[in-house]
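sry for the spam today, last one i promise. C-alpha cells for design, 375 residues
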C-alpha cells in the first residue's frame, strides 16, 4: 500500500497532505524526537533521586507521546471554524479548571498549579494558553467586523485568566498570556496609545509581583546580584554548557543531571548543552526560530483577520515559552519554571503544545478563500 498522495487525491488525507505546511510539521516532529533522546538521558538520575524506577519517568513520557502525535494530527485536520468553536468551549472549561485548581489543587514548591485525579496530574494552565490565543483572536476579529465591544471583552478575558494564573501563583504563564494579549491587540489595530498604556499596566503588575511575592523577589535579586541569592541551579546549568563544549560529551555521559533537581524539565536545555554540545543546542534554537518565522511567513498574505490573529497568538505562545526556558537556563533572565516545548518532561505540556501546534497547522493550511474568511 502506497503512503504517497497524488495531487488529484480528494480524500481527507490527500487534501491534508497537499495543504498542510509539511516543513513546520517535520520541524515539530524533529523537536519531539530530540525531546525523547534527552528525556531518556536526563530522567533516570532524577527518577533515582525521588525513589522511582530508573526509567519510570521515561515510560510515563512515552505513554503521552503517542497521544500528543494523534492530537497534533487530528487538530491539523480542522477548519478555522472548528478551531474557533473548540477553543471557545475549551477555554471556558480551562477557566473552570484554573479556578478549581485554587480550591483542590496539589501544592508543589509553594504553588498550586496541578489537579490530580485517577493517578494523573494535569496542569490546566498549559491548555488554557492555546485556547486563550484563539478565543481572543475571534473576539477581536468580531469586534472589528461587527458592532461588538471586542476590545472590552478581550480585556476582560485577559484579566480573568491572568488573575487566576497569578493567584496560583504562576508569573511565567501570566507573562505568556499577557504577551499574547498585547501582540494580538496591536495587530487588531488598537491605537498605539492604548497598547502602550496596557503595556505599562502589565509592567506595573509584574513590578507588584516583585514586591509582594517572595519567590519572585528572590529570583530577580539573584539575577541582578549573583551574591544576593541561591545560584546553585543556574551555576550548575552554566557549568553544563562549559563541560559540553562544541560537540558535547555524548548522550548519557553528562554528570550535571545528577545534581540538577529539574534536569528533565526546566533545565533540560542544560543537559543538551553538556551531552550534545553547542552545535546541537544551536540546531534546537534554529528549529524553534524556523517554526515561528515559517508560521509568520505563511500569514503574510492571509486575508482573514481571525486566522491572522489566532495563528500569531499561537506562535507568540510557542516562541515566548521557548525563549523563557532557554533564557533562564543560560542566565539571560531570572530563572522561571517553564517547560521547553516538546523537549521537557511533562504530559500536560506535551499534549497541550501538540494541540496548539495542530491548530496552527490547521489555520495555516492553504485553502479556498471561503473556507478561511469567517471570523
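last one done:
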Amino acid at each position: 500500500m502506497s503512503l504517497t498522495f497524488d495531487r488529484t487525491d480528494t480524500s481527507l488525507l490527500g487534501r491534508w497532505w497537499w495543504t498542510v505546511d509539511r516543513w513546520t510539521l517535520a520541524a515539530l516532529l524533529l523537536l519531539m524526537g530530540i525531546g525523547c533522546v534527552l528525556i531518556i538521558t536526563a530522567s533516570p538520575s532524577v527518577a533515582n533521586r525521588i525513589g522511582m524506577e530508573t526509567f519510570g519517568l521515561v515510560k510515563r513520557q512515552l505513554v503521552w507521546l503517542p497521544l500528543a502525535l494523534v492530537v497534533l494530527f487530528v487538530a491539523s485536520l480542522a477548519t478555522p471554524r472548528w478551531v474557533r468553536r473548540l477553543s471557545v468551549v475549551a477555554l471556558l472549561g480551562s477557566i473552570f479548571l484554573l479556578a478549581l485548581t485554587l480550591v483542590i489543587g496539589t501544592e508543589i514548591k509553594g504553588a498550586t498549579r496541578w489537579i490530580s485525579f485517577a493517578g494523573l496530574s494535569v496542569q490546566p494552565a498549559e491548555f488554557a494558553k492555546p485556547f486563550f490565543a484563539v478565543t481572543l483572536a475571534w473576539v477581536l476579529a468580531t469586534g472589528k467586523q461587527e458592532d461588538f465591544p471586542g476590545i472590552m471583552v478581550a480585556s476582560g478575558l485577559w484579566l480573568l485568566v491572568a488573575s487566576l494564573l497569578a493567584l496560583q501563583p504562576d508569573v511565567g504563564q501570566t507573562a505568556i498570556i499577557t504577551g499574547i494579549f498585547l501582540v494580538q491587540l496591536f495587530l487588531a489595530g488598537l491605537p498605539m496609545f492604548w497598547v502602550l498604556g496596557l503595556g505599562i499596566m502589565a509592567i506595573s503588575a509584574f513590578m507588584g509581583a516583585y514586591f509582594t511575592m517572595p519567590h519572585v523577589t528572590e529570583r530577580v535579586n539573584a539575577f541582578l546580584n549573583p551574591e544576593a541569592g541561591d545560584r546553585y541551579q543556574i551555576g550548575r546549568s552554566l557549568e553544563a554548557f562549559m563541560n559540553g563544549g562544541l560537540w558535547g560529551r555524548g548522550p548519557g555521559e553528562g554528570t550535571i543531571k545528577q545534581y540538577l533537581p529539574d534536569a528533565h524539565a526546566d533545565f533540560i536545555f542544560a543537559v543538551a548543552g553538556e551531552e550534545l554540545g553547542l552545535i546541537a543546542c544551536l540546531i534546537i534554537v534554529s528549529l524553534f526560530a524556523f517554526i515561528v518565522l515559517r508560521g509568520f511567513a505563511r500569514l503574510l498574505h492571509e486575508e482573514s483577520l481571525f486566522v491572522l490573529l489566532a495563528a500569531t497568538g499561537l506562535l507568540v505562545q510557542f516562541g515566548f515559552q521557548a525563549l523563557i526556558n532557554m533564557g533562564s537556563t543560560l542566565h539571560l533572565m531570572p530563572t522561571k519554571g517553564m517547560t521547553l516545548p516538546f523537549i521537557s518532561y511533562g504530559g500536560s505540556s506535551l499534549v497541550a503544545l501538540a494541540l496548539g501546534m495542530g491548530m496552527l497547522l490547521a489555520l495555516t493550511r492553504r485553502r479556498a478563500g471561503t473556507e478561511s474568511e469567517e471570523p
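The radius of gyration is 21 Å. ok im logging off now
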